[in-house]
Amino acid sequence: MDTKVERETTDTEYDVIVLGTGITECILSGLLSVDGKKVLHIDKQDHYGGESASVTLSQLYEKFKQNPISKEDREAKFGRDRDWSVDLIPKFLMANGELTNILIHTDVTRYVDFKQVSGSYVFKQGKIYKVPANEMEAISSPLMGIFEKRRMKKFLEWISSYKEDESSTHQGLDLDKNTMDEVYYKFGLGNSTKEFIGHSMALWTNDDYLNEPARPSFERIVLYCQSVARYGKSPYLYPLYGLGELPQGFARLSAIYGGTYMLDNPIEKVLYTEQGKFKGVETKLGTFNAPLVIADPTYFPEKCKSTGQRVIRAICILNHPVPGTSNADSLQIIIPQSQVSRKNDIYIAVMSDAHHVCSKNHYLAIISTIIETDKPHIELEPAFKLLGPIEEKFMGIAELFEPKEDGSKDNIYLSKSYDSSSHFETMTDDVKDIYFRVTGHPLVLKSRKDSQND
Questions:
Q1: What's the Cα-to-Cα distance from 98 to each of 224, 415, 426, rounded to whole Å?
Q2: pTM score, two decimals?
Q3: If we measure between CA atoms, which residue out of 361, 319, 331, 426 comes closest to residue 115?
Q4: In CATH, what number is assigned to the domain containing residue 215?
Q5: What is the similarity comment for this entry (predicted)?
């Protein structure tokens, strides 16, 4: 989808100004427009997506390579530029996750088409294995021995039959008091099974969760199982033509409900009231006022702080499927941190022309992890080895930022940087958190019966 919804405006007064067209900002813009707020959305860049944009192959070379190859050589090797739509920050949607619920709630599914991701894999002792998608697959999985499979089956049965208000289904466990490690112990699960559940199903990036109350892990495993049950094969969905479709879809939603978009319009000055609260912005297209602003960290760097973490991402172009995946056209591989003597997991997201993100007979494999040493490129070696021969490689490092304050003092509400996780659940937590702080009430998701026609 290549949609432009900017419009000329003579208005200067708005309920909300949104700065930046990252996925977080565009979702909030769409949600607030649907709520009846008068929204002005501005971006200094001339395209949607911000830090999480989808780019063409030529844009990828310009961004990451000092001496890019010629257009002729590039097209001879990789095909037409317009066949490529490469995510700078790749993430999958959980089929039953909060972002999917938001898409259904707002009817943005009218503008964006999705295709299932074929499989989810986990790395163990030098090989990759398919993550069992259900109890039957768990029984036949080579990940576990025969007795461990029985214990795993009992664990999954407990998960699926658990009812909050029926203590007989709890098996003596209290999700708010017992740690996840205690839950594993109750079912007699071994270390490798704990690792596979915690990292490939609950999708934790490290093992800190083991000594914390079990409820968040329980809810994450339920989400994983429900997402798999929805379509089978894997719990993940991915938009055709890449994640850049998402901000554009929410931009169209916002425009339908009266929102105004201005791309390629840098902020020249931020205006404040005498009390130090946000008042408006000056741009080349005029001065615009609103009582509050929502923005990504790049617009107010002085109001953000580093989380102390940096993410390295490597975008790899392959001319073959990933070995050991039955020629899957799309998949995720998780390398648990203990398997490669690390503190954080390594994620690999693989897409192909099946999702219209690269030319025929090519694959995109995008690796990401939290940097732990002063030689981050070497940290990705275990992932490179799994991919086989790599035709081209682009690497980038990003520092992660979060707001210093909640926005209530100055009415400036800032989003967090996108983390290294392979899915959108942490990002949608941020969306719901900002929405609550801005509106004073939680985001209630339901399918909209009254959605307007395009």
A1: 12, 17, 10
A2: 0.90
A3: 331
A4: 1.10.405.10
A5: Belongs to the Rab GDI family.
